[in-house]
Amino acid sequence: MSTDLIIFPAIDIMGGKVVRLKQGQFDQRTDYSEDPLAVAMHWKSQGAQWLHLVDLDGAKTGEMQNIGLIKRIAKDVNIPVQVGGGVRSIDRIKELIDAGVRRVVLGTKAISEQNLMKEPFKNYLDHIAVSVDCSQGLVTQRGWVETTKIKGTDFANEMEAQGIKCLIYTDIHRDGMLQGPNIPSIREILKTVNIDVIASGGISGTHDIIELCLLKEQHPNLLGAITGKAIYELQYFDVKAALETVKNYKILKDKDIKDAQ
Fold this sequence. Notes:
By secondary structure, this protein is α/β, with parallel strands linked by helices. It contains ten helices and twelve strands.
């Protein structure tokens, strides 16, 4: 497990453009760029160690629509990328990994077929993460438009039992809202499993990164955090600032404490 919190800049792609959704709602969309590769290169230039790519069209339809762009980013950006959205088959997983994708993120497929991790999927366990996307503690699926009756903690336990080594936990009500991560829910997942967890949803600035770094001190299986809207809105912060916060969070934490006194 990594000793420092990894920052994963999110690049959500819809119709070939970089966009952000509010709470995962496809009709609550903001466009940021028509060149996802340029955005990927920009985040890399700011020091990003990983990128988190999502084919939103694929998440909605069940079939990846922007795979050409994603393959190009994986090939050209020269840092590890993880990719989700519309991955529904072993052939697609293999195709992405062969194209240079380091980690493939499964969502709906893993929920609807919980025997997914049987052969031949087990051959790819080192390159698979499963999304635990929750609404009020219950798992959602199909681009967050359907809520199941499955508790997030139960699903996380099941995925660990299946051999999954990494989970991505998102509180969909925090996603794109810049209201801070749902720390109690993230902590609950971290306590439930012993595998790596990546937190997603709600990051709005330096103070949220500090809070997640503190959480990682308590739960080393918090691998990292995905940040999206905040890094695209200039009045918040960027990837460079997020990484500097991780590096210096103990100093910043002490400063916050003194300022509050």
